[in-house]
């Protein structure tokens, strides 16, 4: 497995037990064609990873899933990220990725506008934690009036959910609260710890899994509403054979046993099929996403 992403640096091999390379572009060299199993080289697929964490954290978190998919597809997978969400969406629309682990509203956009296949979603609901420093005076969302509110990327589903939670309590960006967009969920939380923001929203439970310095400095103020969790999708360019192998490897009880330990550690639930109701729940966020992309 090779990983190209947002920074030009080498990571220790011990992170995921394989060679990782970070760069802004695709790894040089032609991509092997599908169906070359048994020949000189295995097929190679580009796996687009949502840049919701730092490159190092993405490598540590998702290496086991990629290793499982390499075995399921009998292929090599290049993990790729992007410098920001907008670039990630653009690369998705340009069909630069064969598979993606992506935000739910990004998945629906990719399906509707670019013909991607939605394979599965993680079973737990997705929500954001709104946190403040433990010694901060804030008691509820309304008390954040005049505060600086840190979020991940402006297009992130957690950002949109966080801003909706503020709006429901009468807090509007640039009017009575300041929104501070940061590169990742980690950065949003650290902004509060370092005193660069008064509050932050990040994916549910993340602050509890960070370093003791971060975890012990923050307290939960509120939670956002829930939506379907992150989704695995596949490009319309992949063959039916590859698509079926991907479905088998992630959803078939016979083949997905190798994912159970990884999923338990991830704590997002198990991969499961996506329902029509899941898509409908995301419609309001899809509208917000489109309007923000148009700005």
Describe this structure in words.
With 295 residues, the protein is an alpha/beta fold. Helix content is 34%, strand content 19%. It has 10 helices and 12 strands. The strands form 2 sheets. Strands 1-3-2-4-11-5-12 form a 7-stranded mixed β-sheet, with helices on both faces. Helix 1 packs across helix 7 and helix 3 packs across helix 10. The longest helix is centred in the first third of the chain and has 19 residues. About 12% of the residues have low confidence.
Rg computed from alpha carbons, rounded to a whole number of angstroms:
19 Å
End-to-end distance: 37 Å
Helix content: 25-40%
Quantity of strands, as a count: 12
Q: What are the defining features of this structure?
A:
single chain, 295 residues, alpha/beta, D-Maltodextrin-Binding Protein, domain 2, 2 domains, five-stranded mixed beta sheet, 10 helices, 19% strand
What's a concise summary of this model?
The protein has helices at 55-73, 85-93, 104-114, 157-168, 185-193, 212-215, 240-251, 260-266, 276-281, 283-293, and strands spanning 2-4, 44-49, 76-80, 99-102, 117-122, 128-133, 148-151, 178-181, 199-203, 218-223, 231-234, 271-272. With 295 residues, the chain is of the alpha/beta class. Helix 1 crosses helix 7 and helix 3 crosses helix 10.
């Amino acid at each position: 497995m090779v990983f190209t992403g947002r920074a030009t640096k080498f990571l220790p091999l011990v992170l995921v037990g394989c060679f990782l390379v970070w760069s802004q572009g695709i790894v040089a060299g032609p991509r092997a064609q599908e169906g070359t199993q048994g020949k000189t080289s295995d097929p190679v697929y580009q796996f687009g990873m949502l840049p919701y964490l730092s490159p190092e954290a993405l490598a540590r978190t998702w290496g086991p899933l990629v290793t499982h998919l390499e075995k399921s597809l009998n292929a090599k997978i290049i993990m790729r990220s992007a410098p920001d969400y907008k670039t990630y969406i653009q690369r998705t629309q340009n069909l630069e990725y064969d598979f993606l682990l992506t935000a739910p509203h990004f998945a629906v956009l990719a399906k509707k506008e670019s013909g991607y296949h939605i394979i599965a979603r993680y079973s737990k609901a997705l929500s954001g934690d709104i946190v403040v420093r433990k010694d901060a005076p804030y008691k509820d969302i309304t008390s954040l009036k005049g505060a600086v509110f840190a979020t991940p990327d402006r297009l992130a589903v957690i950002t949109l959910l966080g801003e909706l939670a503020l709006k429901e309590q009468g807090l509007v960006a640039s009017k009575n609260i300041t929104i501070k967009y940061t590169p990742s969920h980690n950065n949003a939380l650290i902004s509060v710890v370092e005193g660069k923001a008064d509050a932050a929203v990040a994916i549910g439970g993340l602050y509890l899994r960070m370093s003791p310095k971060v975890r012990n400095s923050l307290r939960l103020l509120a939670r956002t509403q829930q939506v379907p969790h992150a989704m695995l999708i596949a490009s319309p360019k992949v063959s039916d054979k590859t698509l079926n192998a991907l479905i088998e490897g992630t959803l078939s009880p016979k083949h997905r046993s190798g994912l159970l330990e990884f999923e338990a550690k991830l704590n997002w639930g198990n991969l499961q099929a996506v329902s029509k109701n899941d898509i409908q729940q995301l419609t309001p966020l899809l509208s917000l996403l489109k309007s923000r992309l148009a700005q």
